């Protein structure tokens, strides 16, 4: 089957396993080799084999990953970076100039907020936080003529708010801006923002795409070929690319994304049910709960509700910290989306960089990345940790 057919006709799991790579013509290797090479022999000056010149500009292992992630997101072209933040920075530099403006989530990942607040701002790109779940508030935050990007996470990190991608795309496009969706929490298995009108998808592939907590990476996927050309130029010019070893790991992760996500979702549903009935839990935050304010939108645009669960602990910060400390099967660590369950305190850890700003997260909040272990062990661990 040709690459084009994989993109247009096959199911998700078939694309995850085959898209982006044909068995190697010389050896028949069914898995993309790790091309640990910085440069490529030319057949006479400018005689490039397969277009490869230098590994910042292109590397076959990276090409395989970029093709796979583009196929999974149903985009035209994918780009792999050294981290999620490297992908984000490259996108901002591609699309914004000094004096431009970006609307960002008012509960974005702390590192994304820091990138806009401490780095992009210095170069003249301004930003305004707005709640992604409130389309009118996002519209009001747009500065006509100045706003180039409407940037959303859905679900957001760590409060799991939901943005209506179709409605937000319309708002962004009315203002002549692009809609950027950070799809890290949902993964392309549960949600394909480009099919709902978004222009760019951002990933921290460190998370569900890689899926095994053994690599840091990022990706962009776009559906417009002109924008793709501009991103490609900036990817090469800035140079924050994914190396071949990292590309290999992320692509290997993508092959099992679907089965992992189903198990993450199954386990998260059981964890939510358990927490909702626990006396020491003040509030469970999960878009799959009917009382979650974004439930209806999430049900429309996601196939399931994901493996991330946040909850507020009765008794405040001190108790939330104690729960994090006592957990054993849930490892106390930043990051998410790997096969192992993680627990963290966003206020002190992943979102410490938003302390004292409008984006500050509640001090009694605990975030779980529910892994794919035997679920009864996860429930017993939480029971013990909650005391
Ligand atoms: O860590 P990096 O690969 O650079 O990706 C940044 C990033 C971007 N977008 C979202 C939604 C993210 O969650 C992250 C990284 N987040 C964590 C490390 C965390 O523990 O939340």
Question: What descriptors fit this protein?
Answer:
globular, binds ligand P1T, alpha/beta, 387 residues, Aspartate Aminotransferase, domain 1, 2 domains
Element layout with pairings:
Blueprint: H1 3-8, H2 12-18, H3 60-73, E1 77-81, H4 84-95, E2 101-105, H5 110-119, E3 126-130, H6 135-141, E4 147-153, H7 165-174, E5 178-182, H8 187-190, E6 200-204, E7 218-222, H9 225-238, H10 244-255, H11 257-276, E8 281-285, H12 295-301, E9 308-313, H13 317-326, E10 331-332, E11 342-344, E12 365-369, H14 375-386
Parallel strand pairs: 2-3, 2-4, 4-5, 5-6, 10-11
Antiparallel strand pairs: 1-7, 6-7, 8-9, 9-12, 11-12
Helix pairs in contact: 2-3, 3-10, 4-9, 11-14, 13-14
This protein binds ligand P1T.
The site of ligand P1T has 18 residues, from helix 4 and helix 5.
Summarize the structure.
The protein is α/β, with parallel strands linked by helices and about 375 residues long. The chain has helices at about 5-10, 10-20, 60-75, 85-95, 110-120, 135-140, 165-175, 185-190, 225-240, 245-255, 255-275, 295-300, 315-325, 375-385, and strands at about 75-80, 100-105, 125-130, 145-155, 180, 200-205, 220, 280-285, 310-315, 330, 340-345, 365-370. The strands form two sheets. It has a seven-stranded mixed sheet, with helices on both faces. A five-stranded mixed sheet has the order 8-9-12-11-10.
Task: Explain what this protein looks like in three dimensions.
The protein is an alpha/beta fold and about 375 residues long. It has two domains: about 5-255, Aspartate Aminotransferase, domain 2, CATH 3.40.640; about 260-385, Aspartate Aminotransferase, domain 1 (Alpha-Beta Complex), CATH 3.90.1150. The chain is about 35% helix and about 15% strand. It has 14 helices and twelve strands. The strands form two sheets. The protein has a seven-stranded mixed beta sheet, with helices on both faces. It has a five-stranded mixed beta sheet with strand order 8-9-12-11-10. Strand 4, helix 7 (about 165-175) and strand 5 (about 180) form a beta-alpha-beta unit. It starts with a helix and ends with a helix. The mean pLDDT is about 95. Ligand P1T binds near residues 182, 204, 218 and 335.
